[in-house]
Amino acid sequence: MATPLQRPAGNPADSPAAHSPTGCPIDDSAGNATDIATGSPTGGPIGNPVAAPAAPGAWPVLGHTPVLMRRPLEFVTSLTAHGDVVRIRLGRLPAYAVTHPALVRHVLVDGARDFSRGRLFDKASAFLGEGLAATSGALHRSQRRVIQPAFSRQRVAACVPVMRHVAQSIVSGWVPGRTVAVDHAMNDYSLAVVTRTLLPDSLESRSGEAFQQALPVLTRGMMVRMILPEWWARLPTPGNRRFEQARRTMAELVAEAVAAQRAGRAGMLSVLLAPQEGPAEGEPGLTARQFQDHVTSIAMAGVETTGASLAWFFHELGRHPELEARVHAEVDTVLVGRPPRHEDLPRLEFTTRVILETLRRYAPWLITRRARSPVRLGAVTVPAGAEILYSPYALHHDARWHPDPYRFDPDRWLPDRCRDLPRGAFLPFGAGAHKCIGDAFALTEMTVAAAVICRHWRLRPAPGVQVRAVARAEIHPDTLPMVAERR
Ligand code: HEM
């Protein structure tokens, strides 16, 4: 059975449909989307358009900004009730939230040529420059072709020993009965894995701490800048000053990392790139500046995402001892007392279902696109230049596709139960040309950490602590102290 851990590399828009280890769709391939609700095509010629219904709760001048700032997850999930395309306002700026899986797929895959990346990525370009995660169109396609081989199946498989080693060194500091800040531990794991595999020896130790401090300021700042009006970011507030400082810190750290690369150290990216030379006219390859922007993109996109997902994985196991017992039993059976190897991972089927369910429950909550021209989405026509919003989190909590959506139920990913899930209803990694380049890397990284930790440790919720979800670029636990117990 094809799994995301075994999928061939290539431009996702060209690659065969990716499937979860259970055979359920992790959406990324092209095809003609059909509006499931109405049976009508999702895109196409503009005719008899209707106005998108407006979401309630807009303030004069501020629009939906206050509710997006205060209750972001509740707000994005509430939009589904108002229509398949719902008009909201970011301050005075109109934006269209697309809530139906078929229409989201149209925006990301079938009709993707009609859309660029939009406001979120404009804001991120302040620190991502022209990195992979911030570009669109022809420039993005050429960059993706250059970088994709670094994330090939073989390269990801070759990273398993590093992932295992990093996970082992994280748990080696744990003391039975002591409290571990699991959210921090998982971010440390994720940062160490990304740096040691992609850019070994470059961002570690001394810089690692500064990096970990800058990341949340930047990811939160990027979301806040998307939601708030332009003038707000120019005010000399403490938050804006922190953002500027974090931006400078990140630029310095990445420059250091790139310099280390140029000194000839190995790493997934260095195999591809020769930034010290720079490509000659018409040759493949990246300039040093482009290389630096891509490193920033990958660091921004690849550290907190996996770190937060792993933290939620252990939070959910801590709350569900019956699921934890099943993961432990599976790890014991599959690994028979040795550390995990790449070939063991597909056999950790229940563990993988817990990971998929974690990715469903705690998916990225708001991502943008921008219409290049007037585009029809279902019955609605959005004007050229319109900001389009999609929310994997909201799609994943729509009871039409995911019954009892707030229940943590890994077995919903059993083949019999998820066979009829519509395409576009499960998008933890997005879809189409901008689908996460690190999806297989992240799934591998999460499975290795889960296996290494669950072999010897059980993490219990710290008594009396209420864990809240905080929406930055992805959803984080506000705090996650857990008591480590030896199994
Ligand atoms: C659980 C972990 C992760 C999640 C949930 C996640 C989610 C996503 C999503 C939803 C997108 C698409 C955004 C869009 O539609 O515009 C994306 C793109 C991206 N991700 Fe991830 N990601 C994860 C891990 C990683 C890792 C480990 C890396 C790299 C080491 C990475 C690198 C990237 C990059 C570079 C892009 C931009 C791709 C492009 O535009 O071509 N991500 N990710």
Automatic annotation (TrEMBL):
Heme binds at residue 436. Belongs to the cytochrome P450 family. It comes from Streptomyces morookaense. This is Cytochrome P450. The keyword Transcription regulation does not apply. InterPro entries: Cyt_P450, Cyt_P450_CS, Cyt_P450_E_grp-I, Cyt_P450_sf, Cytochrome_P450_Monoox. GO terms for molecular function: heme binding; iron ion binding; monooxygenase activity; oxidoreductase activity, acting on paired donors, with incorporation or reduction of molecular oxygen. Keywords: Heme, Iron, Metal-binding, Monooxygenase, Oxidoreductase. Its cofactor is heme. PANTHER family: BIFUNCTIONAL ALBAFLAVENONE MONOOXYGENASE_TERPENE SYNTHASE, CYTOCHROME P450 FAMILY 4. Residues 31-40 have a biased composition (Polar residues). Transmembrane segments: none annotated. Pfam families: p450. Residues 1-51 are annotated as: Disordered.
